[in-house]
Amino acid sequence: MSYEIVKLPAYRAIGLKWEGTFTEIVPHLKNVIQQMQARSVELENKRNPSIQLGLSYHVIENGFRHYSMFEVSDEQDIPDGMIEINVPEWTYVKTTHNKGEDIAKTYSDLHQWLFKSDYTAYREVGVDYYDPYMPIKHEYYPVDCNPNDPHFEIFIPIIKKQES
Fold it and tell me: Are 97 and 140 in contact (CB under 8 A)?
């Protein structure tokens, strides 16, 4: 596994929101992701139409809030039933999950890297998170990704340990 520290500028994203526990993921979350893929044609001002975003925030006990979205320009209207979020400029650790690999191992390796590094996961002030290690997880999926054997990039917002 390789890890890279990157700073991404702030961006606007529009899409669908799902919120629930880990036991509710199947089939609910997959349905929301597929709905967003189908409805992506409603977003005429996508900045990167080949990448679908999976933005997860662990703000629910035994679960998380997930946004299945596309980055869009300021000109994009919000279609009925969709929402927008604005992601601030953050510094991230970036890695790749490859086809054929175990997703749990990818995240376990990433957790170990974080633990040994000079960084810790970023937490927004005033927000209660239920995942002490990676409370915010951003995944960038190619739109042609196989949902049964996915490949995607992982971005975890981080700060230097002495800043925490």
Answer: no
